[in-house]
What does this fold into?
Amino acid sequence: MHPANDVWQHLLDTVLAEYLFNSAVLMLGVAIGTLVIGVGCAWLTSLCVFPGKKLFAWALLLPLAFPTYIIAYTYTGMFDFAGPVQTWIREASGWGAGDYLFPEIRSLGGAVTMFSLVLYPYVYLLARAAFLEQSVCVLEVSRTLGCSVWSSFYRVALPLARPAIVAGLSLALMETLADYGAVAYFGLGVFTTGIFRTWFGLGDSVAAAKLAAILLLFVFTLIAVERWSRKRAQYHHATYRYRSLPQYRLRGFRALAAFCACFLPLLLGFLLPAWQLARWALETYSYMIDASFLQLTLNSLRLASSAALLAVALALFLAYGKRLLRSKTVTASIRVVATGYAVPGTVVAVGVIIPFAWFDNSIDGLMRAQFGFSSGLLLSGSLFAVMFAYMVRFLAVSIQAVESGLLNIKPSMDDAARSLSYPPSRILLRVHLPLMKGTVLTALLIVFVDVMKELPATLILRPFNFNTLAVRAFELASDERLADSSTAALTIVAAGLLPVILLSYSISASRAGS
Amino acid sequence: MTSQLVVENLDAGYDDLQVLSRINFSLMPGQIGCMLGPSGCGKTTVLRVIAGFEPVWQGRILIDSVEVSSQHVFLPPERRKIGMVFQDFALFPHLKVDDNVRFGLTGMSSREQQVRVQEMLAIVGMPAYAQAFPHQLSGGQQQRVALARALAPRPRLLLLDEPFSNMDAELREQLAREVRSILKQENSTAILVTHDQHEAFAMADEICVMNEGSIWQQGSGYDLYHQPANRFVADFIGQGVIVPATVESATSVRTDLGVIEGDTRIADPPGTMVDVLIRPDDVVHDDESDDSAVVVEKAFRGADFLYYLRMDSGIEVMCLAPSHHNHKINERIGIRLNVDHLVTFSRN
It folds into this structure.
């Protein structure tokens, strides 16, 4: 019997049910968590007036800067037995170990909490945009038809925003499914950790690929849901008359409650973990920042900036090709390419390593047979493989930005430049690029930060002895050297703040009434 | 002298949809042509095919005696040495006015560029705005800059795609006349695309009336108005009504308003029923006349009144009368025919 079948049968018998159960609970929990926090805060900051509202409008995005694995082990460090919280409880009460009940962070419930705390901004962002875009007429009509302020929210505003909320939710759930670092650190059996274990623990690439395929089924369902709801969101706005929205002025107890409701996610999702990381970093930076740390930073920066440049260059090539050729094949293939953003890094890594290894082995075999020497590994275990995986994963981000940038440039601009004797390549340089400088820079920045944060694909595909900040932070944390990992983690979070600031800026610059 | 532009038996379309069939026309150097027609008639497609933005299916296009488009030849737009002015002007928003005009001036020294830019801005009357950005200009000003930009490289042919459609009605004809004088000054060969006949009359030497992808008549504005070749052109250009008539002789017909003499031969034999085009200026208000009609409707137009009249036979005609002749609705007024150009259409 083929050994691969053994492993697969073994997985079926033992862990597959656990993976399915854990993934389902995780998704359900994160869905509820992100919906409550995201929609609630979006509604408060877009339709109510209370102290701090303007600050919260953008600050609520800050948790987005935290990769899931970093917030997971930061909280573990804070709340485990030796951490500051439990130590304080014991000192304050005089209890000893085992005298009190304290929830275990490294659990399924803990993971749900962690994911909800850093992923709710996806729901928040889209829900808020939907609330703000709703034509004021619709809301006013519902008032004239006898709906109260509250029932017009439930009966009109919420249903109108539902497609946007569902789109945000599916993004958050995609991130949940894609996560490897946090669940691995918590020791939870889900698909991503299972793929990793099957590959490296059991050495079975076929079984790992099968697990990856099942995971992809979940992902494709989410993509379908997301696309479907985005489409519906487009048709949902019948009128385009905008005016500043009616705002409900909250006072006294209600204002305080609104303030707390918005402050809590910000505190737990950003301020607290950032403060903890900063404390650790202060303790450890003197010996952590050395030549090897600088090397790590340099590796990360180089990798991220070349991936960003490559992704934007490819996106320009593809999107401009689509604009020039107007062909259905090009449009369809760009859509396929842009599906990569939803594919978990672990799956991408498996998908890259199998064909690359086959290619290397074939070339090697050919070389040995024909010329009597071994060419060794050409692609697998090289930075090329890492970069390839990044493109699969992040090209969608740059394509989306570049395409929307190009769409904003009227076709008559192209025609005008061509009638003035400019060939397409020079039009791109002289007309399109200057006009979409902003979008291109945004695309560069977002891909840059995504690569800085990326963990599983880098972990699997990186060349021997090649480390990045993310990999190092994860390794140190896994070795229970939480404080030592904080410098790297803090650097990643700081980089992650850049696109968040950019997003916040565009939010505050958007429309009046916000 | 050879033609600057020749369009020969042109068929074209998008994907599977044929838009143009058998388009033929030509322009002499310095001549201004116009494609005039209702929306969807294919006039803009003619322009885009000449510019090289769309391929031809059949036929060919020659610019300056060089074949630029046919089934076998396709010169891309950037190599055709044409200029184009767009409906939305398409000024580059990131460039100042002078840089927009300079954009197409390649292959000359920056000194020469500078001179040409200033010359063009002077011609269009915008030298004071060289340092402005397009969004700081009004529609009419953007229009002038777009024209200067298109003309600066001395194109062999200038294409204007509904260039006045974004202007208000008053500005349109004035700008059309201005643009015409600029084009004549630069001795440019140009084609204008429009759905507005007054624009066409104000600008063009030669007008092609298009409908359903073909040219239905070609000629000067005067000819199109007074000698329409078919019912579509008669209806599309100017106002008027079609009234029944009987052919009397080879050059005359009898209507309810009397006999009309023309100077062209009528194809139908005497005794047959035909239709005759009566323009509002063919019907003269005359209190002395034996014929009369009842005012059904009237439109005050400043210098004159346009009356809609019903004759006793039930036939309705229009009449243009000086505006001091103010008659009430349902009032009976005397009219008489004064037709310079007899236009008849066979009934079959």
Notes: The helical segments of chain B are 43-51, 97-102, 110-123, 139-151, 169-185, 197-203, 221-226, 231-236. DSSP finds eight helices and 20 strands in chain B. The interface with chain A takes residues 51-53, 76-84, 86-88, 90-94, 103-104, 106, 149-150, 153, 155, 159 of chain B (CB under 8 Å). Chain B has two domains: 5-235, 240-346.
